[in-house]
Amino acid sequence: MILVHAARQLVSRLYIHPILVNFTAALVPVSLGSDVLERLTRRGSLRETGWWTMLYAACVTPFTALAGWLFWMKDDVGVHGMAIHKWLGTSLAVLIPALALWRSRFWKADRRPNGLYLGAGLVLLAALILQGHLGGVQVFKDM
Ligand code: HEM
Question: Which atom of ligand 1 lies nearest, measured to the CA of 71?
Fold first, then answer.
């Protein structure tokens, strides 16, 4: 209990959740965008970018979500958008590593990711945009 309290203090004072969200929000679209661009331009380095950035996103996103749980404040309770934010964010912390696992199969086989992967990735990206929007609305609603 003392440890949780200390972690909450640290996360709140250093604003760790708003810092980490930037990594998740940047790495996922860079990865998917690189994979789409690689199909159009056939530049091999873009395929490498697609893999490594998704791997980094998978590593950081569970910490983004954990920091969100520790950042939860009294005024977030009972807010409909924040209830969605809480559970969608927790789901993304599982789905992004799952997407990276899927992406790793193409990487190991030295193949470009197929259309199904890219389609699933774009659906996940739409969910990530909604997630960021809901968090931002809560932070900036009074401005
Ligand atoms: C992939 C996961 C997540 C992403 C991308 C994300 C994104 C965001 C963004 C963009 C903000 C606005 C920050 C700012 O502009 O300063 C925010 C705020 C916030 N998020 Fe998340 N979030 C995620 C997961 C979670 C989870 C799982 C929780 C809680 C269980 C959570 C709780 C919060 C809280 C409490 C705030 C601040 C709201 C306030 O100021 O009252 N987030 N999030």
Answer: 35
pLDDT at 143: 81
Can you tell me the mean pLDDT for 102-108? 98
How far apart (Å, rounded) are the C-alpha atoms in residues 42 and 109? 17
Cα(122)–Cα(17) distance, integer angstroms: 24
Distance 139 CA to ligand 1 centre (A): 9
| Ligand 1 centroid, distance to 45 Cα (angstroms) | 32
Average confidence (pLDDT) over 127-143: 95
Among protein residues, the one whose CA lies closest to atom 1 of ligand 1: 89
Atom of ligand 1 nearest to the CA of 79: 41
Query: Which pLDDT does position 23 carry in this prediction?
Result: 98
24-59 burial: b if 16+ Cβ within 10 Å, else e:
bbebbbbbbbbbbebeeeeeeebbebbbebbbbbbe
pTM beyond 0.70: the answer is: yes
Assess contact for 24 and 128: CB atoms under 8 A: yes
Q: Which atom of ligand 1 is nearest to the CA of 76?
A: 41
C-alpha distance across the termini of the chain, in Å: 35
